Amino acid sequence: MTHGFLGNRGSLMIDVVFVAMFLVLPVLYWSIFSVRSRSRYGFHKRLQVALGVVLLIAVSAFELEMRLVGWQHRAEPSPYWRAGGWNDLVDWSLAVHLTCAIPTFLVWIVVITQALRRFPRPAAPNHHSRHHRIWGWCATVGMTLTATTGWVFYWLAFVARSI
Ligand code: HEM
């Protein structure tokens, strides 16, 4: 079992995803700024597709590790963890995180595939713009909530310890 590099109880994959979210959010907001204020449609397209691919690879590797190895044993020293499911803050924070993460994942897939199919090449505004702006902002808010709730879960499960 590989230990993470942050010096907490996270595994390597957990730490990678934790840190990756600190990079994903600024890149996402930079991408939106560049399309909104600078009309750099091609740049926005490349950044969003790259973000989508990186997130898909990271989340798949992460999910695989969670299914194969699990994370509960790493949360045991946390004062917010109790064995036996749904009776502690760690489990509830995970539930809140997944409530954000799962719909956000689906919305991202729809936003990217629809944008690739409906915008012209090179990318530029057209009849799909209105729909894309609405769902693009939903995807952005969803990713922001997914990251922040993920950080809270990480702290409760893998950083907090009894004094
Ligand atoms: C999950 C991925 C994506 C997200 C979260 C996203 C988000 C956004 C947001 C929030 C806006 C509106 C900015 C504003 O308020 O003016 C926007 C605009 C735009 N996006 Fe994306 N986008 C994504 C993927 C893509 C892709 C893959 C393409 C190209 C194929 C694309 C092309 C555009 C274009 C052309 C606009 C300008 C629309 C207009 O102002 O008329 N986007 N995007």
Topology (SSEs and partners):
Elements: H1 12-36, H2 41-68, H3 72-75, H4 89-118, H5 129-159
Helix pairs in contact: 1-2, 1-5, 4-5
Protoporphyrin IX containing FE (HEM) binds at residues 32, 35-36, 41, 44-45, 48-49, 108, 111-112, 115-116, 119, 123-125, 129, 132-133, 136-137, 139-140.
Structure summary:
This protein has 163 residues and is mainly α.
Tell me about this structure.
- By secondary structure, this protein is an all-alpha fold.
- It is built from five helices and no strands.
- Protoporphyrin IX containing FE binds near residues 48, 108 and 111.
State the low-pLDDT regions, or none: none
| Strand percent estimate | under 5%
Largest sheet: none
The first-to-last residue Cα distance is 26 Å
Helix count, DSSP H or I runs of 4 or more residues:
5
Globally, the shape reads elongated
The H-and-E topology, N to C, reads as HHHHH
Bound molecules: protoporphyrin IX containing FE
Rg, nearest Å:
18 Å
Average pLDDT rating: 95
Structural class by secondary-structure content: mainly alpha
Name the helicity range: over 70%
Total E-strand runs: 0
